[in-house]
Write a sequence for this structure.
């Protein structure tokens, strides 16, 4: 009886929900809820609607996508997967291995994605040779942002080495400015950590330590130095940092409370959304050292029933990679287009710098996936590393201990 | 006429525990059957079985000639009054009384008529619009009875209905129940642990102990000829004197010797009884009198040492130690008995019950 | 047929709930136990691989922290909430004029989810925005209250907020208990000239033993299930200093894609719950069976 | 003489103790007041902040009263705040929560009442075991059930729907509702049931006519408890909903975690209060009955 009643009600709900129209449909699960991000999604939604699609927004904010991933798992298990999901890095392949992703090769081939996407990025979008995700953008993670006025007032240049950074920070601290705006959330700790690894260890070391998880690299003296630098930087952070959202840290740089922030270029979206000008109000530079850490946002399409939904997926995939969207979206989001054939004239200097560096590092072999943003490793491994990094940063653990724990945690994460 | 209630080889178990064993009871219409016994004897369980509130494990049960063994309570044509009255707390007195009729779909006019009739009979008309919480104990009792009476059932069941009342009210209600029984000529099964209630109300008594029937009989039978030591001890107040004694065949009769300080008390049983050597002699206090105040065939006198004198208004009880027991005699109020002094007592041997020492069963 | 139905109706009525509980509680516990023996990652797999997940769990320093936090949090939370609840109940039991209003004030936190009040708490406890800056603003510049961001003390802020949320409910339980103590006993004690505090310690409180048990069980189960609280207040941070088993399990299952690990931690949590609840259930049903 | 001095000394000590008593009384009220402040602080902060302008929040103190009361933040939170790309505020989600909570509370309370009635008054063999098995269900950490539940909801075809969420809340509310009613009904003498059975009433009739009218105090307790639990739930809400069925707590979380450059604390706080208003109201209005009901039922065990 109860079952029956529920079944009736839910049938009604389904009927009511699907009776609208039979055009392309997409329910999009994402966690882009902050200012610049939300604007960017709105762009996609408008374009989708302009092409006759009906977009159902399913934002789940919080925890850097944790809550969204909870919802995603529940929905996939219940056989009620969303049409498209913001998903990236090896997670795409992991979901593919579970057999729940849809194949969008037909769109990709028709649109010639292979010709316009850099090989390393295309690699992330493919699962066993078929296309299973559509890239939206390329974020650079190893950025350092600064308030131009604050630097000028204190006579400081953008640092090019970590020693310079430390010297500048000491000076700022003495002047009563918070040197480093930071939010004490595990992934933000990890973001800073990976830029320090790249800066101190160099691209090769980064590859060994955070991509290949080579135990030797993880326990090396270089890694000890990295943790030493982290300890130093802990001293440059104000005492209220714990649990702060990244965009609030960005706001601190914007209003001159703090001088620097180490954060991916989505931070630029916040600067821009607040009407700040790159090069004038705020400065951007890659964090000290060589290399380029990328974080590619993408949408994966899940297996769904219904032609209208499948049509929605194809349309969505097509629009996402199309030049127009890539341009407009990334102007809002702060990142650069994933496809290489988009003219960057409208983009600011930071974006142009990013595009330039992407080309050069790609040639030099130092274009590397970000570990902190789930591009390099699977969840359990990157999580294990983050646990140690954040524990070290938030306590008085010695660097030597941290290195030991790092190796142990990685070994325990398989 | 068919028996109104017929219980045949009834058994009741809770898991492995036997609560009731081989119960066989039959009563005629108009009978007032009292189930009596100490707490835990199974009398309430038996009543619940009759009501159908408990499933029976074995045997059969019929009411008014119809087999009711597996019939649900509502179809047994019974009414029941509970110890706690079990009045429905949210309903008024009137609703409490008519609830059963309402459930059975009796039309409103009949309900009203019946209610009026019963309320008049029990003198509870002023209470009809009150709730149970606004009633005194005695009033609640009346309402509970009203709820049963209004049903006009084949059989009334009462589960210790008077035990929550104070002593005076209890006696009053007892009389009323008896009157009701006589006016309505109803068939009643009544559970109590109070043997006086049993004696005053019953036309038939069942004494229960440990789930086994000890004796069934009229109050007089139970009182005068208890079937065993348990019944003898349980029924009657003060209790029957139960005195260990030695029986010796002696010509025409039997000599009964009761040990006491300063030489055995010797009595003669002149009835022709085959008694074993060790017996328990049972004699009610009123069958021991002061010498000279009792005459008859079996009366024998003997001198006993008085240990204690208890005046009780109409009577005076005198206690003397015989056979290692405190033996009570019920004397007239003007007796000259004095504690510590000897007194001549008259034993009415024609009223004596004998019980086997080992089994406790009655011998005569 | 209707006879059968009439006789079996109680069972028929209970059956759907019972079946639902069998499936949705015990079936799922069984499912979790099974998955804890597999190497499930992103989604559950059903191939048994032994106790590897438990070995990993016990090797994990983060789990150690989570369990230690549960001890600290659980012990402090339960004890303080009980003591405070009892104290408040006794204070309120002194024929207070505005009892209704005060009671409501003490009780209302129970009505609100930590998702709702978390932001306010975060604010109050934040050294730069809340109490610390406020007191410093009054001129006490040396005043420090930075527990929220101090990994060694952050767990105590969780305790504070948890007590804030639940002690009013405990107060209500105890108040109900105080009101149900037989008034004649208290009168007798007063006539005997026993001081009020002795009446409480020697007569009233001991007679409320069942309420202590109820309160303990409610609080213990809240402590073990605490999740919203940590997420809203610290997100488990700083670092993972305020992780609790529930948040650990959640992180493993949903942000790490390590479902096997999550299942093993869930099983350990279940064992803890079991150890607390079963004796309670036993005593509960024992007492009522008579 | 002695006759006179005795009462005099007595009055003296009496007045001394009276002074002490008054002092104690004051102390009592001060204590109670301080605790009240502790409990009210977060609500106070939320309320005042929600009424301030952003400018005032930045410059003013945490506990200062708003200089200018403005309800803009409330309006925004109710119907204008953005989550993702939609800017509808809490309103649609608020109604979702109502649609979930009201039936779920009603169904779980009714089932709990029936179950409690069976377990307490119609004991059959194994009833106690069934009851304790159900009770244990209260204590299961909900994270454990998310994944298998998702699977089963999918199989039943109610994943992501409001009936699905109602179903989940009913299932995991049963343990507590059954416990409440069982503990309450256990205190009602079984003779009442017996009397009604002899009167000819059946299982449901007895429940309906006799037990339900008696149950008001425990119904209040159960409804308050269940409503609070269900309304405040976040975990099930975030896991088993889809676009269009998300409850207010999920929306609140989205709003609080969505920022447009500047964090609008006043909107966050207003949204938080709106999300908590129904449960708050229930406690304030029915709190008295809650305590009374606790005395009547669950505590006695």
């Amino acid at each position: 009886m109860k079952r029956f009643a529920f079944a009736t009600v839910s049938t009604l709900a389904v009927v009511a929900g699907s009776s609208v129209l039979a055009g392309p449909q997409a329910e999009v699960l994402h966690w882009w809820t902050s200012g610049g991000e939300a604007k960017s999604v709105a762009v996609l939604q408008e374009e989708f609607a302009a092409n006759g699609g009906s977009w159902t927004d399913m934002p789940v904010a919080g925890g850097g996508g944790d809550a969204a991933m909870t919802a995603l798992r529940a929905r996939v298990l219940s056989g009620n997967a969303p049409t498209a999901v913001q998903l990236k890095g090896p997670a795409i392949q992991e979901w593919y291995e579970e057999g729940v992703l849809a194949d969008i090769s037909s769109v990709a081939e028709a649109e010639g994605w292979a010709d316009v996407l850099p090989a390393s990025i295309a690699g992330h979008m493919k699962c066993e040779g078929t296309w299973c995700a559509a890239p939206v953008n390329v974020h650079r993670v190893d950025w350092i942002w600064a308030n131009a006025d604050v630097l000028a007032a204190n006579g400081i240049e953008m640092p090019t080495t970590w020693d310079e950074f430390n010297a500048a920070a000491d000076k700022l601290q003495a002047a009563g400015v918070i040197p480093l705006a930071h939010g004490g959330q595990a992934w933000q700790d990890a973001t800073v950590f990976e830029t320090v690894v790249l800066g101190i260890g160099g691209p090769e070391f980064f590859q060994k330590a955070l991509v290949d998880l080579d135990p030797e690299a993880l326990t090396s003296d270089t890694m000890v130095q990295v943790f030493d630098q982290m300890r130093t930087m802990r001293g440059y952070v104000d005492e209220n940092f714990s649990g702060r959202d990244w965009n609030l840290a960005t706001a601190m740089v914007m209003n001159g409370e703090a001088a620097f922030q180490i954060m991916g270029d989505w931070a630029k979206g916040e600067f821009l959304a607040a009407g700040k000008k790159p090069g004038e109000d705020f400065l951007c530079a890659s964090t000290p050292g060589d290399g380029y850490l990328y974080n590619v946002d993408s949408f994966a399409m899940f297996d769904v029933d219904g032609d209208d939904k499948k049509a929605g997926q194809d349309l969505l995939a097509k629009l996402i990679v199309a030049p127009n969207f890539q341009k407009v979206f990334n102007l809002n989001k702060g990142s650069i287009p994933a496809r290489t054939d988009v003219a960057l004239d409208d983009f600011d200097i930071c974006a142009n710098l990013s595009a330039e560096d992407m080309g050069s590092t790609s040639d030099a072999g130092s274009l590397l996936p970000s570990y902190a943003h789930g591009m390099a490793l699977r969840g359990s491994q990157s999580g294990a590393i983050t646990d140690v990094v954040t524990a070290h940063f938030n306590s008085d653990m010695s660097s030597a201990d941290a290195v030991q724990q790092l190796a142990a945690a990685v070994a325990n994460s398989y | 006429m068919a028996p109104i209630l017929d219980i045949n080889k009834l058994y009741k178990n809770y898991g492995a525990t036997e609560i009731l064993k081989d119960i066989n009871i039959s009563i005629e219409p108009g009978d007032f059957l009292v189930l009596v016994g100490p707490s835990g004897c199974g009398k309430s369980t038996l009543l619940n079985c009759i009501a159908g509130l408990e499933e029976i494990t074995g045997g059969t049960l019929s009411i008014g000639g119809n087999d009711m063994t597996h019939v649900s309570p509502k179809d047994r044509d019974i009414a029941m009054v509970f110890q706690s009255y079990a009045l429905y707390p949210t309903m008024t007195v009137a609703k409490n009384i008519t609830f059963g009729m309402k459930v059975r779909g009796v039309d409103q006019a009949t309900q009203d008529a019946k209610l009026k009739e019963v309320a008049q009979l029990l003198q509870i008309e002023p209470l009809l619009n009150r709730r149970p919480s606004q009633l005194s104990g005695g009033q609640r009792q009346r309402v509970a009875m009203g709820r049963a009476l209004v049903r006009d059932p084949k059989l009334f069941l009462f589960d210790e209905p008077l035990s929550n009342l104070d002593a005076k009210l209890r006696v009053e209600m007892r009389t009323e129940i008896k009157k009701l029984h006589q006016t309505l000529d109803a068939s009643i099964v009544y559970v109590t642990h109070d043997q006086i209630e049993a004696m005053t109300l019953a036309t038939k008594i069942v004494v229960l102990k440990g789930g086994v029937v000890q004796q069934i009989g009229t109050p007089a039978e139970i009182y005068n000829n208890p079937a065993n030591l348990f019944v003898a001890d349980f029924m009657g107040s003060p209790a029957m004197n139960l005195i260990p004694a030695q029986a010796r065949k002696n010509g025409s009769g039997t000599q009964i010797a009761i040990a006491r300080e300063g030489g055995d008390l010797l009595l003669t049983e002149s009835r022709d009884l085959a008694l074993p050597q060790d017996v328990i002699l049972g004699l009610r206090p009123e069958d021991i009198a002061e010498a000279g105040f009792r005459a008859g065939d079996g009366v024998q006198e003997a001198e006993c040492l008085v240990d204690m004198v208890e005046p009780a208004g109409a009577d005076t009880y005198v206690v003397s130690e015989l056979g290692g027991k405190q033996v009570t005699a019920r004397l007239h109020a003007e007796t000259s008995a004095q504690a510590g002094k000897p007194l001549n007592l008259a034993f009415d041997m024609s009223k004596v019950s004998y019980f086997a020492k080992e089994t406790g069963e009655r011998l005569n | 047929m209707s006879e059968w139905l009439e006789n079996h109706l109680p069972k028929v009525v209970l059956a759907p709930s019972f079946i639902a509980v069998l499936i949705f509680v015990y079936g799922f516990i069984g499912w979790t136990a099974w998955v804890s023996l597999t190497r499930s990652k992103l989604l559950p797999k059903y191939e048994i691989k032994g106790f590897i997940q438990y070995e990993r769990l016990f090797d994990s320093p983060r789990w150690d922290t989570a369990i230690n936090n549960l001890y600290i949090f659980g012990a402090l939370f339960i004890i303080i909430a009980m003591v405070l609840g009892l104290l408040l109940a006794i204070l309120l039991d002194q024929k207070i004029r505005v009892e209704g209003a005060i009671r409501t004030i003490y009780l209302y936190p129970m009505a609100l989810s930590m998702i709702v009040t978390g932001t306010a708490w975060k604010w109050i406890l934040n050294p730069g925005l809340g109490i610390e800056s406020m007191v410093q603003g009054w001129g006490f510049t040396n005043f420090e209250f930075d527990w929220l961001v101090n990994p060694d003390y952050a767990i105590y802020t969780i305790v504070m907020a948890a007590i804030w949320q639940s002690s009013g409910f405990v107060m209500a339980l105890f108040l109900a208990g105080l009101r149900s103590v037989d008034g004649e006993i208290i009168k007798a004690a007063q006539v005997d000239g026993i001081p009020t505090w002795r009446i409480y310690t020697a007569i009233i409180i001991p007679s409320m033993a069942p309420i202590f048990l109820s309160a303990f069980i409610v609080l213990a189960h809240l402590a073990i299930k605490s999740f919203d609280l940590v997420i809203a207040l610290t997100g488990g941070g700083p670092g993972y200093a305020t992780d609790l088993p529930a948040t650990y399990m959640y992180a493993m299952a949903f942000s790490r894609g390590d479902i096997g690990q999550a299942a093993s931690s869930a099983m350990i949590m279940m064992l803890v719950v079991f150890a607390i609840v079963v004796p309670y259930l036993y005593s509960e049903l024992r007492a009522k069976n008579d | 003489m002695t006759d006179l001095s005795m009462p005099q000394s007595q009055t003296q000590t009496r007045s001394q103790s009276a002074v002490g008593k008054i002092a104690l009384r004051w102390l009592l009220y001060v204590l109670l007041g301080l605790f009240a402040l502790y409990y009210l602080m977060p609500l106070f902060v939320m309320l005042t902040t929600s009424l301030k302008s952003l400018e005032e929040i930045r410059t003013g103190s945490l506990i200062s009263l708003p200089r200018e009361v403005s309800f803009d933040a409330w309006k925004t939170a109710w119907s204008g705040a953005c989550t993702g790309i939609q800017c509808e505020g809490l309103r649609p989600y608020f109604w979702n929560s109502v649609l979930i909570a009201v039936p779920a509370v009603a169904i779980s309370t009714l089932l709990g009442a029936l179950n409690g009635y069976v377990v307490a008054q119609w004991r059959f063999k194994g009833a106690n075991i069934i009851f304790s098995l159900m009770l244990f269900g209260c204590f299961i950490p909900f994270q454990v059930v998310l994944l298998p539940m998702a699977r089963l909801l999918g199989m039943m075809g109610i994943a992501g729907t409001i009936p699905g969420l109602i179903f989940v809340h009913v299932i995991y509310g049963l343990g507590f509702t059954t416990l409440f009613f069982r503990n309450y009904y256990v205190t009602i003498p079984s003779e009442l049931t017996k009397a009604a059975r002899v009167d000819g009433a059946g299982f449901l009739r007895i429940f309906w006519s006799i037990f339900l009218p008696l149950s008001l105090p425990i119904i209040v307790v159960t409804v308050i408890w269940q409503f609070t639990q269900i309304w405040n739930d976040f975990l099930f809400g975030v896991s088993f909903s889809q676009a269009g069925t998300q409850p207010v707590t999920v929306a609140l979380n989205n709003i609080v975690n969505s920022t447009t450059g500047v964090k609008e604390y006043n909107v966050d706080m207003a949204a938080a209060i709106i999300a908590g208003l129904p449960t708050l109201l229930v406690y304030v209005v029915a709190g008295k009955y809650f305590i009374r009901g606790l005395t009547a039922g669950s505590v006695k065990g």
Summary: Residues 1-21 of chain A have pLDDT under 50 and may be disordered. Residues 141-294+360-411 of chain A form a domain with the D-Maltodextrin-Binding Protein; domain 2 fold (CATH 3.40.190.10). Chain A has two domains: 22-139+295-351, 141-294+360-411.
